[in-house]
Amino acid sequence: MTRPARPRLEPTTSDExxxxxxxxxxxxxxxxxxxxxxxxxxxLKRWMVFGGHVLGKNTLSARDRELLILRAGWRCGCAYxxxxxxxxxxxxxxxxxxxxxxxxxxxxxxGDREAALLSATDELIADHVVxxxxxxxxxxxxxxxxxxxxxxxxxxxxxxCMALNSLGVELDAGVPGFPDGHAPDDGVPA
Length: 190
Prior knowledge:
The structure is a single chain. By secondary structure, the chain is mainly alpha-helical. It contains 9 helices and no strands. Helix 7 (112-127) packs antiparallel against helix 8 (132-139). The longest helix is centred in the last third of the chain and has 24 residues, at 144-167.
């Protein structure tokens, strides 16, 4: 399916924000995702609480979290989310090669743990369940809270990708989309 060529909702501007929205946006940044969601300040405020857990209080390592998010962004055809988390992924130690490999089919070049994380992401997006085989592979390394955070991280970013794709949110200045040659083959602009 082809994504909108331009935003369906333009990002809001400062003259549209009340004091609470100004404070919220000042705290999280004036990225296109947040200024677009500011069309519905109450939704933005409540979503930020959950998003804050997934991004900042997650029991998974930052590296594992970013692999899940990159894979979800790629699987969902969301250049915006993939690009934002390319930047964050680099900050937590992912290499450009690893980021590019997160945007490919299969699990070549990954260790067992990383391959299982990517497999779980693929399964959650395609089938809405982690298979018994993948669950057992992950449970050898992850505790109950980490398993829950894995599921909710993929779910959170799948939902975010649906919103970003549907709204046509454009990349922020200086943020890459998909790596060259790694855009999903479904008409998604890179």
